[in-house]
Design brief:
The complex is a heterodimer of chains A (199) and B (287).
Chain A (H helix, E strand, L loop, with lengths): L16 H20 L12 H11 L4 E7 L12 E7 L4 E8 L2 E7 L16 H20 L2 E9 L10 E9 L2 E9 L5 E6 L1
Chain B lengths: L1 H41 L1 E3 L1 E2 L12 H5 L1 H8 L18 H30 L5 H32 L6 E7 L9 E5 L6 E4 L2 H8 L3 E8 L5 E8 L8 E6 L6 E7 L13 E6 L10
Parallel strand pairs in B: 3-9
Antiparallel strand pairs in B: 1-10, 2-8, 3-6, 4-5, 4-7, 7-8, 9-10
Helix pairs in contact in B: 4-5
The chains are: A alpha+beta (199), B alpha+beta (287).
């Protein structure tokens, strides 16, 4: 299969072997018990949007959301303990990220690179719906066949939708311990799978 | 039988007493626990530290940072192109339509007041009791128009001033007795430091026990460290303190820096700092 990662780097840990799978399962159990105790409750991407937007508006009135990514591992419903929301201000020509956990901003920092990204469409589907579409579109099969897991969910415009680069899309990246990752691009307005590839 | 009844009655009394005492204790404990909580909500003491507190490191946007060159290159694909989408107009906010109606009502009310005023001037020429009654009616009309105007102002106030953003107001009170005060430096997280030089009038205000505003602006609703520095004859330039604040979202947080107990020996940490939330709601239009 042709490598279509085009230089993409996977930053997540790849589990290797049964022992690691057991460790991961244990960690998931710990996360589940922590959630029960009221600690680090995973949430869908939209749940933190209002607070992030409020913070961005305090920083720059023209700030617009341009990128979104999970900052901590995802669960089976597309929720994460922490999400990072990136805003861009054309007047300030700066990008600022807010990382939210449990209804609080735990990181607020400038992105130390030029990132003049276009604003996201406002009607994007939530991470849970995007994950459900991706699971039906090959994600589940990949996980089962390759002992894979969902590593990254990101929302942006222009990066992975070759047919319509203006479209806001979710990109889900599944990793496997012994093979290339699976990329699934989901249309963020209709929830349809646009592209899948291994790389 | 009677004795049994008495015993039962006594037991019932004892139970009643016990229940009352336990309830009273419960209420007392509840009151004791709520009073400090209520006070704590009103004003919170803030510690001004000599050393900047360390923040926990949370990596964020790891995929973006690892693949930034690729992603930036992909943005080049974004280009203008003709599409067949229909450009439907969005719905107009009904409030904006209502404002037009309100403006028309204001104009009508103004004209009514002018007419009433003109008639009132004419009526002043007459002194009969009957005509005074008419004057009273006219005054009632004017009062009603004023009440309607207040109601309209209330609507506008709710629509606009009700949209409070997260903001911080820093005020200074007190005056150090043993050193001259030149000004302040306030530096919020990731922002340019702000220098405030005190004018002689502001210094006099502080000496008289007044309050001086040194910062008022929007802030991010998150925990952040504010660097506070004081300048003056006996304050070293590097003398700074750090206060950690967590401004509440969509509220105005006030930070008061009380300098009355400040001395050059202890420096900025001797500033007494406290915060509270501005609790004033939108005033009623009928007031």
């Amino acid at each position: 299969m042709r490598d279509r990662t085009q230089g993409l780097v996977d930053t997540r840990i790849r589990p290797n072997g049964i022992a690691r799978v057991v460790v991961v399962a244990g960690l998931m159990l710990m996360v589940a018990s922590a959630a029960t105790a009221g600690e680090r409750i995973p949430f869908a991407a939209r749940a933190g949007l209002d607070l992030a937007k409020d913070a961005a508006r305090s920083w720059a009135q023209d700030a617009a959301l341009v990128y979104l990514e999970n900052d901590e591992p995802l669960d089976g419903s597309g929720a994460s303990g922490r999400w990072g929301y990136l805003f861009y201000s054309p007047t300030l020509e700066k990008s600022r990220v807010y990382s939210l956990r449990q209804g609080k901003i735990v990181v607020a920092e400038y992105l130390e690179m030029r990132f003049e990204a276009p604003p996201l469409a406002s009607d994007w589907i939530d991470s849970g719906a995007a994950l459900a579409a991706a699971e039906h579109g090959g994600g589940r099969e990949f996980r089962e066949k390759h002992a894979g897991r969902l590593g990254t969910m990101l929302l942006m415009r222009g990066a992975f939708a070759e047919d319509d680069p203006d479209e806001t899309t979710w990109t889900l990246i599944y990793t496997a311990p012994d093979g290339p990752s699976l990329f699934i691009v989901v249309d963020a307005s209709e929830g349809k799978v646009r592209r899948t590839w291994r790389g | 039988m009677d004795r049994t009844r008495d015993r039962r009655s006594g037991t019932a009394h004892a139970h009643a007493w016990l229940t009352t005492v336990v309830a009273a204790l419960g209420v007392g404990v509840a009151l004791l626990s709520t009073v400090p909580a209520a006070r704590a909500q009103e004003v919170t003491e803030v510690k001004v530290e000599r050393v900047k507190p360390n923040k926990e490191d949370h990596p964020t946007l790891q995929f973006l940072k690892a693949n930034r060159d690729f992603i930036r290159a992909r943005f080049d694909l974004l280009r203008e192109k003709t599409t067949a989408r229909q450009g439907d107009a969005a719905d107009i906010d009904p409030r904006f339509l209502a404002y037009q109606k309100m403006l028309a009502e204001i104009q009508t009310a103004r004209e009514s007041v002018v007419v009433a005023n003109s008639q009132q001037q004419r009526l002043e020429l007459f002194a009969s009791i009957t005509q005074l009654g008419t004057l009273e009616t006219r005054l009632d009309v004017m009062e009603r128009l004023l009440a309607e105007q207040r109601a309209r102002l209330g609507v506008l106030q709710n629509d606009f001033t009700g949209d409070q953003q997260t903001a911080l107001l820093v005020v200074v009170t007190g005056h150090p007795t043993d050193a001259g005060l030149g000004g302040f430096g306030i530096a919020l997280d990731d922002r340019e430091p702000l220098s405030v030089a005190l004018s002689p009038e502001q210094r006099a205000t502080l000496e008289r026990g007044g309050t001086v505003e040194v910062f008022h602006g929007f802030v991010e609703p998150r925990e952040q460290v504010i660097k506070i520095s004081v300048t003056g004859d006996r304050w070293p330039a590097s003398e700074s303190g750090y206060a950690t604040l967590d401004p509440t979202r969509d509220r105005l947080t006030l930070l008061r820096l009380d300098l009355s107990g400040m001395d050059a020996g202890r420096g900025a940490p001797s500033i007494q700092a406290s915060t509270w939330l501005h609790s004033a709601g939108t005033p009623s239009g009928d007031r």
